[in-house]
Every structure is written in structure tokens, then in C-alpha cells.
Amino acid sequence: MTAPYEPGALPLLAHALLTTWQHREDRLLTVDGYQLTGGIRSAIATTAERAFARLDPAGQNVARKVLLRLVQVGQDAGQTRRRGTMDQLRRLVPDEDLDNVVGAFVGARLLTVDTGTVEITHEALLSAWPRLRDWIEADRTGLHVHQRMTEAADVWQHQGQRQDLLYHGAALAMSAAWADDHAGDLTPMEREFLAASRREQQRGVRRLRRMVALLGVLVLLAMAAGGVAWWQSDQAQRQRDMAVSQKVGTLASGLRATNPALAMQLAVAAHHTADTLEARSAVLTSTTPYVSRFRSGGDWVNAVAFSADGQLLAIGTNDGVAQLWDPSNPRQHRPLGTLPVTGEVCCLAFSPAATIRVLFTASAKGAQLWDVTDPGTAKPLATLDGSDKAIRDATFAPDGHTIVVTHEDYTTRRWNVTDPAHPAELPAEQTSQCADSKPRSVSSPDGRTRAFAQGYQVWPCDADNPKPVKIELGKQITGLAFSPDGTVLATGGVDGNFYMWHAPLAAYLDQRRNPDAVRATSHDHRTIVTGSGRVFLGPANSGQIAATVDNGEEFTLWELDPSHAPRQLARQPVHNLVAVAFHPGGKVLVTGDNSGKAIVWDVSDPTTPHPVTTLDDDFKNVNAVDFSPDGNLMATGDTNHGVRLWDTRNPASPQQIAFHTHHTEAVVGVRFSPDGKFLASTSYDWTIRLWDITDRTSPSATTTITGHTDSVHAVNFSPDGNTLISTGRDRTTRLWNIEDRQHPTPKAVLSHPRPAAAAFASDNRTVVTVADGTVKLWDTDYQTVADKVCDLAGQPISPQEWAQYFEDTVGYQPPCP
């Protein structure tokens, strides 16, 4: 039987023959040469992949942009070649990069260039090369939107930039949304086309406003018609405010890592504009650490230092600005005083001596001591004889009588400054630091920890933990200083600003001893435990016993007593152990494992736990276990999509009373509400289900909650039962308002660098999360957080910053004036 003809087979065959010829032996085509090509179907893909692999990372990025420009993508399926011009591509990428990439693919006979045009040589490349096929499928809808926009922009450009050819409505919204995420893939002409379309739309909004004003006059003549017009105007205003709030809230969340001071104020401004999920989430993620921003008026802030009493902060820039600020006043807009230094200020140090307030400054023009008792009129005391080596660090001895100056070659000079007006040089003494390779360093107030800064990161190191831990602070750091009480870390930045981080660095240092911490909370929400393995708490009336799961092979019982460290009571092997739950009575514990068993243990004597019974059903894996607050019910979740309810009035012998498989993937979390009337379950199917268990033998699904973009790991209720908190593999913690059990609504989304665990504290508003070894407390009251942001914001958002993010949709209204 003859095989049917395959479209694209001839180009594949032609390329296979070509590459076989390139691997010939003398003038003979060989089987070995053919096999080197990868065969008919693989030859073109092999050639393309080799050409791509020879490019450096920047060239590979250019190749992706160029090739996608040469593909015509259908909205739902299919793609074909399309011809482009070298001029169009040069507007997208630099000439040299373009020539290198195009040359590489032309040399591989995958691209054809002819009189200024370029196109893919073989249509078959679009389906035969997996990498190109994946690029297309990864964002087919976006590529289709981009191509239509490119065509529209080209017509607009060649038709004299007529206004009637600009985008508006849904086309503009889709293109603008795509462009916001792919700014680097736009040509200047496409950017200009979008900008003109947005301006025209804004003019249309203004025309609409004038029309609304006219309709307002007509209200006097026709109340009914005017009433409708007013409602429409109000709705339009509300929709505009909602859209602006969503956009700015999303931008604020994205800025959090690189410009937290600005992100905090943008979040509050977005929330003031409209109460949207995006704005609420952005406000709540502003909680820790709060950042105060101040503008120095100079260039890079190279150095920062606190006075011994914490009442002054000195800053120095690389263009010769040295200032004194009040660190207790985040709302100040100008310094208390300025020192008349010249040249780059490389380091600053305050004397701890109490007689007079002395500041050391070092710049390109020399090192000086200053009397800054009155910050507004600083007085020079003495100049230290210079060295031909630049100064990189200076530290006062604790008694304030000696200052040690370190030069760029790590040599040191010591000066007796008991009389700061007459410093005397002392004999040299060898000093050491725990990491001389880092250019910025500072000691903690207690002297036990030394922190080094480089780029965007801080590394603390101390005697207890010789391995440094990297901490991201979001801004390139050019200066570093602790406040005397250790509650504030001041940093200088390359943007001419300096920042005060209102969270003790010591908290971060302590967390490095808790890697991969996972939390557990008691049912009364009053006890939270973190550790390096999974932690489960017993009831408060059990003398507070905790169980930890160790490597999935055993559980350990611990006695928790605030007066001393946890005391190990017993270790019990359980193969493939996954979950543990204590019965509220404190005498029974149930384990779930990946062997398909739920085992009931008698732990009335926690030093000798022993199994009582095994619940063996079609579980596959028992992933989650929880007891109702009254102890009369137990819920289990398993890999066979099952959620099961058990009668545990006799906790040693649970009896299954209900079962459902409404989830479509494995169930990995179950949790009872505080009143015991509802059960929440989570699954790998990305959903949360709420179950009304008033009738315990026939639970009914109240609703399905969606929003996570990956599997949902765990769920928890607030103490009052009105808020649900869920965590998932999508690296978010989500809060849901479930006062109306039939219609849950999202309250906020908290993002983490890795999947987290979360629970409510007993105050009903504080959320505790653990992610990436870091324990965080989140205040979920928006107004409280917004007020705190403005109390500590420092200098307010500028009109230029406002215009950049709000454009002309909302007039300048700084949230923290």
C-alpha cells in the first residue's frame, strides 16, 4: 500500500540530501553521512539546533526575535512563512547582532536574503524544529496579536498616520497588554503606533467627559434621561478607576524587589483610586520591611553612619555631598546640616564617646574630624595626615579614643583621638575581617555579626555561622550602617537616594538557622512552631506535644515547654510517612502514608506510642488528615481524588461515614472550620472545595474556589471562620472572604520566592507565612498597613514618578503628602 503524501516532505528531503552531501566522503554519499544528518525528518531540526547552539546567549535571544518575526501565526492553529525586510529587523535589534544571527542561519541555509528581504528558506522548519515550534506554541495568541498590530502599524505609517487607522477598544487593550509584557520585542514604529492609539483613546475619554457635561445640562430639561446619563458616567468613572487601580497595583507588586520605597506608595495610591484585588495585594506585600526613602541631592550615596545615640544619620556621596539627617523623622524633606567637604566621600564614622559628638569623614581630598554637636553648624576639628592610598573603611574603638583607618590595599593606620582636635598616629597593628573580598562592611551593635554588601545583596557572617547567607535588599548598595539599637539598617544607593529599612537585620540572621522551615499551628491559633521538617501540634490540653515528620520515614514526639528547649519523647518508624494529626483529646494520633494506610496510634503515654488499628481502603496515598474541633469527626484526603469523613467519637476505632471524589486530581489538604460545620479540601486540580458537613453522613459541596495557577497545597481558616487562607505551588498565599459560603471572593494575593505554608494568628488578622527559610508576619488590615507606609515613607512620590505610572488618567494625588 502506498503511503500518503506528506506536505513539506520535499523540503525536508532536499535539506537531508544537502546535509548528507556536506558529510560526504570524497565525492560519495554514505549511509554514515546520512545518519549524521539525523535522517529526513530530523535533518533540518539538527541543522537549526546546531546553528542556534553556536550563538552566545544574547545572539540566541536575537534569533528568537528574528525568527518569530518571520512566521505568520494563525490565531488557533497553523503557521506559515512570511517575508520581512532587513530594515524592519534593524529597527528591532542592533545591526551587528542582527548581521551575526542572520549570517549564521543563512550559512546553515535556513534563511534566505535577497535585495534587502529575508525569509525562512524551508516551510518545513516551522514544524520540524522543536525549539521554534515551542516558541510559537508558548504564546500563539500573543504572537497573533503582535502580528496584527505590526500590520496595522505599517499601514498607519504608510497612510500618513491617519487617526482613523489607530487602534481602539478591545484591539488596543489586547495589544497594550501584550506590549506591557514584551517591551523589548517592539520596534520604534510599533511603540509609536501604540502611544498614538493610547493618546487618541484618552482624547476620546475627554470628549466623552464633555459629552457627559452636556448631558448634565439636559438633566434640567429631562430628569429621566439625565438620570441615565449620570449613572452611565458614574459607571464609566468607576470602571476607569478600577482599571487604573489594577494596573498600578500590578506595577507596584512588580517594583517591590527593585524599588520598594516607590512600590509602597504606588500600592497605597492604587488602593485610594479603587479597592481592587491587585491594589489590596500590593498594599499588604508592603509590610516587611518598611522602607523610608530620602533624596540626597547628590550622586551615588557611598557612605552612611549612625551616631552612637541614634539621633543623627550621616550620608556621603561620590560627588562631594556630606549631610546630617534626623533618622527618627521619616517625613523630613531636607537635611539638618551639610558639611563643607570636597571630592568623593568614601566613608563615615561617628565616635561613641559621649563628651562631644565627633564625626569622621574621608574623601578624595583627605580625612577630617568634625564637631557635629550642632548639626546645622558643623565645625572642623582636625585633618588627619593623608596617605597615597585611598581610604575604604574607618572604625572607632568602643571607648571612642582610637580610630582605625583601612586603606584600599588593606593596610591600616591607627590614631589616638582622645583629644579630637589634636589626633596622634599610633603604631600600626594587623587587623582581620571575616570576608575582605566584599567592598562594604559594617558590624552589628553587639559586635558579634559583621555584614558585607555588594551589588543588591548583603552577606552576614558571625562566629556561630561561618557560612554567609545572602539577603536581597532590592537596591544596589553603596553604603551600609546599623542603627545603635539594631532595629534599622541604612543603605545608600546609586540613584542618589538613601534608605532606612525598618526591620532588624538580626531577624534575617536568625532565620538562616531555620532553613526550609515549615509551620504548624494549634487549633486555637495561639501556638506556631517552625522547624527543618514537617511539624504537627497536639491540642493545648495535652501539655503541648508536637510531632515532626523526619525524611518521610518516621515521626518524633516532642514536649514543648517555654521554659526550656523542646525535649524528645519518642521516635517511631513509619514508611513513606506524609501526614500526622492529633485527636483533640490528646491521646490518639493518626498518620497517613504513601503506602495507602492511615494508622491510628495510642499516644496516651507519648514516650511509648503504639499502633491501635490501620485504616486500609482504596486510598493509594493518604496525603492529609485533620480532626474537627470537637474530635467527633476526622477527614482524610487521598491520591485517588477522595475526601473521606470518619466518625471518631471512639477515636481508637474510626468508622467511615461519607466519601466523595469530586476533585479531579489528588487531594493534598483538608481542614475543618472552627465551628466544625464546614470542611475545606485542596487538590492538585488547582481548586479548593468547601463542604457543608452539617449533615455529617451526606456532605454537600458549597462551592468550588478557583484562582491558583497550580496545585493548591494547603488551606486554613481564620479563627472567626470568615476568611480562608490557601497556599499553592504557584508561590502565592491567597486570602478569600467566605462570609457568604456560596460566593467566596478573593481578598488578597501574597507572593513568595518559593511555595509557602501559612496560617492565621489568634488576633484574626495577622497571617504567618514560611517560605524559603523565612518566617513573615503579615498584617491584613489594609488601612493599618497604608497608614504605616505613609508614616515611614520618607519623601513622597514625585510628580514625575506619578506621571510615569498613572499617565494622565488620574491627577497628581500623592498618597503620603
Automatic annotation (TrEMBL):
Residues 426-448 are annotated as: Disordered. The keyword Cytoplasm does not apply. Keywords: Membrane, Repeat, Transmembrane, Transmembrane helix, WD repeat. Residues 429-446 have a biased composition (Polar residues). It comes from the Bacteria. PANTHER family: F-BOX AND WD REPEAT DOMAIN CONTAINING 7 (PTHR19848:SF8), WD40 REPEAT PROTEIN (PTHR19848). This is WD40 repeat protein. It comes from Kibdelosporangium banguiense. The lineage of its organism: Bacteria, Bacillati, Actinomycetota, Actinomycetes, Pseudonocardiales.
